[in-house]
Amino acid sequence: MKEYKMRRGEYLDERMPDLEGEIEEYFGPITTTESFKGNDLNVVEEPDNPVFERIVVGKTEYGSKKDKIAVEFHERDVADLGPEELEAAEEAVSLKNDFLEAATGRDAKSRRESLKRQVEDDPDHDFD
Fold first, then answer.
1. Domains of the chain by range and CATH?
2. Which phi and psi (to 5°) does residue 116 adopt?
3. Alpha-carbon distance 113 to 5, whole Å?
4. Of the candidates 38, 97, 110, 106, which has an alpha carbon nearest to the alpha carbon of residue 71?
5. Which burial class, exposed, middle or buried, applies to 2 when counting CB atoms under 10 A from its CB (0-12, 13-18, 19+)?
6. HEC states along 84-123?
7. Which of 16, 55, 71, 94 is the residue whose CA sits 20 to 30 A from 41?
8. How far apart are the C-alpha atoms of 119 and 122, rounded to whole Å?
């Protein structure tokens, strides 16, 4: 599970007031919830894009700290994909990046740099 921060001064509720609606628009119907660090995250068991097997996503709140968005994309092995599904793989990458940028206000490069700083600040923490 990865957690992403919003841009400075921004909050997930402001960026995505209808998080569940956004999740369904990007990935497909939410089928259940799953607990993560005391937060209920949304689960899409059968995503619209065939590359994804399952998606877990939602807001994580930490009391006085700023909230984050937690995501876990379970993807099929590329070797198991047929020719039509390989075309969907490119769309899957775009869907993930577009969703995370809409949620956090940060592009892929900024998110990578932020995660890298997080690891450097806390080398003993397991971020998987």
1. 2-121 (3.30.310.190)
2. -65, -45
3. 12
4. 97
5. middle
6. HHHHHHHHHHHHHHHHHHHHHCCCHHHHHHHHHHHHHHCC
7. 94
8. 5
Beta-bridge mates of residue 60: 68
Q: Would you call 101 exposed, middle or buried from its count of C-beta atoms within 10 A (0-12, 13-18, 19+)?
A: middle
56 - beta bridge partners?
43, 72
- The edge-to-edge listing of strands for the beta sheet with 2-5 is 2-5, 65-75, 52-62, 39-44, 32-36
* Nearest one of 99, 93, 89 to 25, comparing CA atoms: 99
The tens-digit pLDDT sequence of the chain (128 residues) is 999 988 888 899 999 999 999 999 999 999 999 999 999 999 999 999 999 999 999 999 887 788 899 999 999 988 888 887 888 888 999 999 999 999 998 887 877 777 676 666 655 555 44
